[in-house]
Amino acid sequence: MMNMNQKIRIGICGYGNLGRGVEAEIGKRPDMELAAVFTRRTPAESLKINANVPVVHIDQADEWKDRIDVMLLCGGSANDLPEQGPSFAARFNTVDSFDTHAKIPAYFDAMDKAAKAGGKIGIISIGWDPGLFSLMRLYLSAIIPDGKSYTFWGTGVSQGHSQAIRDIKGVTGAIAYTNPVPAALEQIKNGESPELRAGEMHTRLCYVSIADGADEERIRNEIQSMPNYFDAYDTTVRFIPLEELKANHAALPHGGKVVRGGTTGEDHRQLMEFSLTLDSNPEFTASVLLTYARAAHRLAQKGESGARTIFDIPPSCLLDIDLQDAVKQLM
Fold first, then answer.
1. Where are the beta strands (DSSP E) in the chain?
2. If residue 286 lies in a helix (H) or strand (E), which one and from where to where?
């Protein structure tokens, strides 16, 4: 068990919903402490956080290289992490939640090169999907090789999709909901193994507020045609005032499930399912990031370097108790 007097010093880069989630959750980890928050905002001190936590402009991050054990990169996948990830991985041990599935292989390569050059560990795409759901897809497909896996998201708010909309010129606020198609899930639970495209399994519902004079049609088209986010789905865009968005769409619930149906032996039907129901998507994602920060710190202490995914991390690296106690308590 780690010496509780030697706490893992955590840095937060980016103070949006996810960064605030990390701040809220870190107090539940007795082996960790929040060392500093890094932001692009000017002045940095404008952030409303614990008065005992330094708030540092991101350009001054190098001054903290010896005071941060693991940097949690809490920026968005569309625009922040592709640049920030490799930059920070060359200087700090990092954990991030990069979630653009189609671009993960390229992102891994960039992070691996940077982290190895800096002698650091960079654990990428950690959250619940990608992340925990990725691991479940691996386990389920390995256990039932004669079968087919399906992933359903929602009903809930997608943080990455919402941020991608907010990055569009003229948008002042946005929330994107993901909704599973009930008929598709029923097919699988009834023993069928249909070939389903992404758009046959989910729909997207986006509430968007825009600046005065902004072109609704242009923004609608940009959202509905956005690759890797909305173009493959039946996406509904509803424009509402910013006040209504803040009043009625402030909560950040989410959830989903990974389901695999298949057969063993002489065609005995087996169904495996892993599901999550989350009141707060960012706080749960923050909890996963913090858990894997512990693993990043331990791997770094062993002298390892380079990028890692959730597939590479031994479960014992996640524990805040020693392995013997884990066997007694959890086996």
1. 8-13, 32-39, 55-57, 70-73, 94-96, 121-123, 147-153, 156-157, 171-180, 202-210, 234-239, 254-264, 268-278, 306-308
2. helix 281-301
Question: Domain end: 238, 257, 280, which one?
Answer: 280
The parent domain of residue 235 ranges over 132-280
Query: Amino acid identity, residue 35?
Result: A
Q: Give residue 163's pLDDT.
A: 87
Q: Is the pLDDT of residue 55 over 80?
A: yes
Residue scoring higher pLDDT (19 or 163): 19
Asked if pLDDT for residue 1 goes beyond 50, the answer is no
CA distance 57 to 37: 8
Please report, for the domain that includes residue 239, its CATH number: 3.30.360.10
Measure CA 59 to chain center.
24
Distance CA 105, CA 311 (A): 13
258 inside domain: yes
**pTM for this entry:** 0.87
Asked if 40 and 144 sit in the same domain, the reply is no
